[in-house]
Specification:
Blueprint: H1 2-30
Length: 31
Amino acid sequence: DPFKDTAGPSLHVLVKLLATITLVLAPLFIR
């Protein structure tokens, strides 16, 4: 499945990006 091969890594990058943004914005929400 070619779509699965392309969607897998991009989804992984998206999760990583989301985690990074959450870590950066967490202190703002805690305050």
